[in-house]
Amino acid sequence: MKKIKWTQKHLLGLKDLTAQEITIILDTAKSFVEISERAIKKVPTLRGKTICNFFFEPSTRTRASFEIAEKRLSADTLNIAGASSSLVKGESVKDMARNIEALKVDMIVIRHSSSGIPHQLSHYVNASIINAGDGINEHPTQALLDMFTMREKKGTIKGLNVSLIGDILHSRVVRSNIWGLTKLGAQVTVCGPRTLIPAGIEQLGVRVTNNVIEAVEGADAIMLLRIQRERQDEIFFPTIREYSRTFQVNSQVLKNAKKNVIIMHPGPINRGVELADDIADSAYSVILNQVTNGIAVRMAVLYLLSGVKQEEGAAK
């Protein structure tokens, strides 16, 4: 069987990637896991490369994960926060990106509140663009680390029943996961209040339910999503207490799930709202595994986009 090589210059989303390309990233990430277990957690793979982390929205896990991934690959890093950038002086994103590229950076990791910004930047600059979350559109590296964790715990993605429960309407994580999981052969169910389910989402090949018990039945993996109040300009349900009473995953709800189900969350968790405290910290939870796996996945993405010859080996 002919080995498929990586040819993409950017990682803008999973919508436009093939199943084979997604698998290449996951397989490459597996080779990077071992580096984080070494006494000296560093390889020279990206020595001489410069990567700019350009974050216009608050971030803990994603930003820290990218920074650690870059340093473990020996890349030089430049960190810019939107609040401290020239954008507050009226400079356009296009001009700022071109000025950053004039510093001869090789890759730009960008998070922005507006959907489509990474795609626009990919037309303005020669550097490789990595989408670290754009509006309510996509968050590809989060979905990749989610899938990596599922494959690690379940052995395969194909044939898994995965339920995504919560604020489906405003979640970029949901969109990337739907694209990735369905391409790799998983059956995906989305669940939440009717007001937080996008119209026509069934056309993406997912099952829709407004009943949390129905959503967890037969699930191999359950991913909880917080209510993204920062993206909501209207009221979608009566109260947080009412939402929690109807859609929270707790021990009572999990009685209807498979015995070996795994509980996931992209973070941050709103404990006691979408997920009960005891379940977040239970043996079902792989939430901290997701955080750890994010480093290997982002190392893989940086490596593949860097243009380093793949035959040289990823984790030397």
Could you explain the architecture of this structure?
Helices cover 35% and strands 14% of the residues. By secondary structure, it is of the alpha/beta class. The chain has a five-stranded parallel sheet. Strands 2-1-3-4 form a four-stranded parallel sheet, with helices on both faces. α1 (19-32) crosses α5 (140-154), α2 packs across α11 (287-306) and α5 packs across α11 (287-306). The two termini are 25 Å apart. The model has no long low-confidence stretch (mean pLDDT 91).
List keywords for this structure.
alpha/beta, four-stranded parallel sheet, 14% strand, 11 helices, single chain, 316 residues
Helix fraction bin: 25-40%
Give a short account of the largest sheet: 5 strands, parallel
- Structural shape: globular
What gyration radius follows from the Cα positions, in whole Å? 19 Å
Total helix count?
Answer: 11
Order of helices and strands: HEHEHEHEHEHEEHEHHEHH
Structural class of the helices, strands and pairings?
alpha/beta
How many individual β-strands? 9
Mean pLDDT level: 91
List the uncertain runs. none
CA(first)-CA(last) distance: 25 Å
Strand content: 5-15%
Major beta sheet, strand line-up: 7-6-5-8-9
How are the SSEs ordered, and which strands pair?
Layout: H1 19-32, E1 50-55, H2 61-72, E2 76-81, H3 93-101, E3 107-112, H4 117-124, E4 128-134, H5 140-154, E5 161-165, H6 172-183, E6 187-191, E7 207-209, H7 212-216, E8 221-224, H8 240-247, H9 251-254, E9 262-264, H10 277-280, H11 287-306
Parallel strand pairs: 1-2, 1-3, 3-4, 5-6, 5-8, 6-7, 8-9
Helix pairs in contact: 1-5, 1-11, 2-11, 5-6, 5-11
